[in-house]
Amino acid sequence: MKQKIQSIMESSFYQLLLIYFILVLMITFSLFYKYTIHMEVFALILGILGFFIIGKNIEEKTSRFLENKNFHYSLVVLALLLIFFLRAIPYMNNNIPLGYDAGIYKYAIEHGLENLDNWILQGVEPGFLYLMSVFRLFLSTDFTLRWLFILFNVLLGFSIYLVAREYFNKTAGILALFIYTFSIIQFKVFEMMYYKNVIGLSLALLALYFLKKHETRKKYSLLFFVICAVLTAWIHRPTFYIFGLSYFFYSFASPYKDRKYQWKMLANNILIGIIILALASLLYFGKFSKAILLLIEPIFSGFVEPGQSSGTFINFFTYQFTTLVYLPLGIIGLLYLTKKKQFNALFFWALISAVIVYFQFFFFNRFIIFLDIVIVILASAGFSVILEKSRKIGILIFIILFISLIFSSFSYSFGSKPLLNENELDTISQIFTISENEAFAMSTSAYYSTWVQGYSQRRTIAPGLFDYDIHNEQEWKDFWASNQPNLIKNFLEDYINKYKQPLYIFIGERQKDNLMSVNITCLQQVYNKNGNKIYKYQC
Amino acid sequence: MNKLNNAKIKWIIGIILAILVLNIISVIIVAFSNISYKESLRIVFGAVYVLFLPGFIMSYIFFPKTKSIEEKIKSEAENSKEIDLIERIALSFALSIAIVPLLVFYLNLIGVKISFLNTFMTILGVISISAIILLVKNKKKVD
Questions:
Q1: Chain B 18-47, CB below 8 Å of chain A: which residues?
Q2: Residues near A92 by beta carbon (within 8 Å), at least 6 away in sequence
């Protein structure tokens, strides 16, 4: 009876899987609207049904054609080149870095360590500042922002490959690398220029890789695990947060083997964790301690009042529909780990990031990035399970999967544009030329704030950002809505009184210009290029 | 003895090939961008010098042998000091990213300024010390 149910479930799974992937292919070519039916529920059902096809351990199984050294290396190189070219496409005929954070990173690279502004100490990790201070001496900021960032994306590909290979098998390694290459979510991470996130993830995954190696008592693995973990903490705190939680649960789960709990192993795990925390804390000692202390309160309040601090990234609903092509495979991968009782760090990483995203705890939208990385790795395992069970269906799914991934990723990449055009950026850069050394730059729109900070080379006043803003949200709202000379004059005068320096106000072509219509004697337009203006305010 | 000479020749050819490839990359960058050849050379060699070379040489201290991906599975159970090429490349980047900024950070703490010369010499120091350790280790092995 049990076998009969098993075989019914298995055949239902394969039939539904084929229907699902045909629908996904139709969605890719816009022949079917993805929101017409609940595809995410379909993906979940498929993933759960996949539980019934999980057979042998896939770690022992590798596709024979991938055993060939040259073919294997060629595929890895091809995937790495594709990561590079996909991300280089937006920079063909464009010199402006992608993403809202580009201005912040430009400032952090050029002046972060030198000025150590309050917002830098709170928002940018010391590891990133020191890493960039080295690059800055050898490479231009422009190169660092555009091409070096692409190289770090390639490094992340390397890490994903190694982790999938180590936790599952070589086939999974190659598959995970290709899924990452074409993942729109991961392209979005690049497009939004989450620089620290990419470096942090590469290091955290390498740490997971060495942790797995350490389980097989490979020499030096423990040393490299600790180094990579400490560096993750030094370069990106949210990545370390998810990594630390995964390691915490892993420490308690891994000593349970063959129905026995190995207390010595638990003690070792805890000791390693304490060493990592102690070394990481040493790197935040002194001025940078703010970066940790100021994070504690929002993290805890994020658990008490979920749904408040989302972080900037796509939401969970959009995420599910963007990853339809590998979502069910990822669920199968997770169920594979559960069925095989492999409660490793990867398993806890998936579980914790899913809980944070689903229950909307602290920074929940940003944690979609971590969830996606692990789903990519688990999808490769899920795919290996299908390949091991049914080669023909596996190859068919493989073809559909990659047609869909390649088509959507290239379409997305070709449509990717910087947030500013050349006129806007040129005008912002002009502030440096026309202003006095001690003058202040001002952005009255959040859209331009980071760019003014990075490209004006002047201390920047921006609504709710950086160190020099002295008005609250309501006062800014009154300023934006006002056409009264007195209110605008008083608002700007507050800065003159406080800083005793002239103000250079940038008004871009995408924002309302409420300064144009008012007649204030101290205010004059000093630059205008295609609707992008600079006003000088000095009395 | 013959084996040792062969290894040396292999290394020299490898270095020449690497310099050639980096030069070709520099030329390609010049062709597709508006920067000069000199600037392009600085970027390419600078990136390799900072991001790859220190970790690459250090990786040989911990894992002296590179094995092919086919060999890997066979000897996984042994506690060997071998890694495959892909692992070595990833490790080279990771070690470089780890060691260089950390050294700069600690040197900066004791008052060494972060300048081009200081950083260049720091990285050169890492590379030289690693190379000396490697040479000593190899010599001991031969003896």
A1: 39, 42-43, 46-47
A2: none
**A156 shares its domain with A38:** yes
pLDDT of residue A59: 65
| Three-class SS state of A46 | helix
Residue in B closest to A169 by C-alpha = B73
Both A395 and A456 in a single domain?
no
Contacts of A283 in chain B (CB under 8 A): 105
Count Cα neighbours of A425 within 13 Å in the Cβ-side half-sphere: 15
Reading chain A (539 residues) residue by residue, the pLDDT tens digits are 777 887 888 788 888 888 888 888 888 888 777 777 788 888 888 888 887 777 766 666 666 666 677 788 888 999 999 999 999 999 888 889 998 999 999 999 999 888 888 889 888 899 999 999 999 888 889 889 998 999 999 999 999 999 999 999 888 899 999 999 999 999 999 999 999 999 999 999 999 999 998 887 677 889 999 999 999 999 999 999 999 999 999 999 988 887 888 889 899 999 999 999 999 998 888 777 877 777 777 777 766 666 666 678 888 888 888 888 888 899 999 998 988 888 899 999 999 999 998 888 877 888 999 999 999 999 999 988 888 888 888 888 888 888 888 888 899 999 999 999 999 999 999 999 999 889 999 998 889 999 999 999 999 999 888 888 888 888 888 888 888 888 888 888 888 888 889 999 999 998 888 887 777 788 888 888 888 999 998 87
Q: What 3-state DSSP class applies to A520? A: coil
B42 closest CA partner among A196, A144, A114? A144
A524 with A430, same domain: the answer is: yes
Joined tokens for residue B72 = 């890997």
Tokens of A219: 């020499």
ipTM over 0.95: no
Contact B94 A203 (CB under 8 A): yes
Enumerate residues 6+ apart whose C-beta is below 8 A from A217: B79
pTM for this structure? 0.90
Burial level of B80, CB count in 10 A (0-12/13-18/19+)?
Answer: middle
E strand map for chain B:
65-67, 82-84
Q: Is A519 on the interface with B (CB under 8 A)?
A: no
* Contact across the interface for B100 and A162, Cβ inside 8 Å: no
Test B86 with A158 for CB contact under 8 angstroms.
Answer: yes
Check: CB of residue A102 under 8 Å from CB of residue A454: yes
> Which residues in chain A have their CB less than 8 angstroms from residue B73's CB?
62
CB-based contact, A131 to chain B, within 8 Å: yes
- Name the strand (E) or helix (H) holding A193: none
Residues A112 and A243 in one domain: yes
Q: Are residues A450 and A398 in the same domain?
A: no
Same domain, yes or no, for A322 and A436? Answer: no
CA distance A219 to chain B (A): 6
- Domain boundary (A370, A396, A414) is at A414
Chain A positions in Cβ-Cβ contact with residue B51 (cut-off 8 Å): 151
Q: Could A73 and B86 be called an inter-chain contact, meaning their C-beta atoms sit closer than 8 Å?
A: yes
- Boundary residue ending a domain (A414, A430, A451): A414
Count of structural domains within chain A: 2
Q: Which domain holds residue A429?
A: 422-537
Same-domain pairing of A250 and A348: yes
Residue spans per domain, chain B:
1-51, 54-143
Which of B51, B53, B103 to probe by mutation at the A interface, max A CB count within 10 Å?
Answer: B51
Cβ contacts from A onto B, under 8 A: 92
- A345 and A215 within one domain: yes
For residues A502 and A536, is the Cβ–Cβ distance under 8 A?
Answer: yes
